[in-house]
Amino acid sequence: MKAWEMRKGTLGLHDVEAPRLKDGHILIQVSHVGLCGSDAPKLLRAGDFALPEPWRPGHEIVGTDSAGRPVAVDPLVPCGDCTRCTDGSTHLCSGLRRLGWDLPGGFAEQVVAPTANTHPLLDGLDPLTAVLADPTAVAVHGLRCTPVGSPRRLAVIGAGTVGLLTALYAHRQGWEVAVVHRVGRAPHPSVTEAVPATFHSPAALPMDETFNVVVDAATGTDPAPLDLALRLVNDGGTVVVQNAYHPGVHLPTQLRDLFRRSIRLIGSFSYCRRHQQDDFTIALGLLGEHVDSMRHLVTEGGDLADLLSVLDHRSSQTVRQVLTI
Prior knowledge:
2 domains
């Protein structure tokens, strides 16, 4: 079969052996794969990361199972036996493996995944939109599994895919939501119309504007998003950092000020299965309820090289790019 792989720092489309099935696993015929914001830096600057050799990317996977049913694939493969897995904190499992990272990903004609990780698509949810299940689960986890309190006023910093999906989920939970986007990078009107929130640039926010909860969904190579989050949060409020900052980025404030204001600073990594619920399943349900709106957040592209060329010339990713296999 054909698969995109990074070999010795060079991305290419290769002929590879078809994956072999093992007990408890299922063969997925891949139809769509999302190009995540976490994939792009590794694909564009492979030398900056400790990648498997070879590395087959792609963790936002949709395809069909052996019965021909459309399914979305949860890429997190925990051990299932440790105390973290027992309490549902599967994202913190020390033996966690991930499709598209430690395990061969979905930028291929076929992929093997644990049967328990495959989720049939709900009626009305098309495969293109279902690619958003992984980033939607990240958005759900950031608010579902952190102590953010009762819904009041919430700001999301970052108008990328995860930020917009966080705004959608927060609105559904009853929050009054504002999205703060990068200067000069306001989302397209079709996107702002699809997401129930007000949109602002940092300069347009009054200096005394504050929120009960601020979600940092921007992160990146400098601390500016977190610095803004700490300015916007109320005293006694909560800042949720939803994505990973690059190595070497430091906290941009004096710790004395942080604790004097009684701010809760919480990291939210990936997603989990806590409290007898599964963030990934909740995400699919959310997408199924908002199919028409979500179609504004995803678009089909050409091959992987074409998509990377697009990303290499953009400083942010508002609309998720999807490769059709």
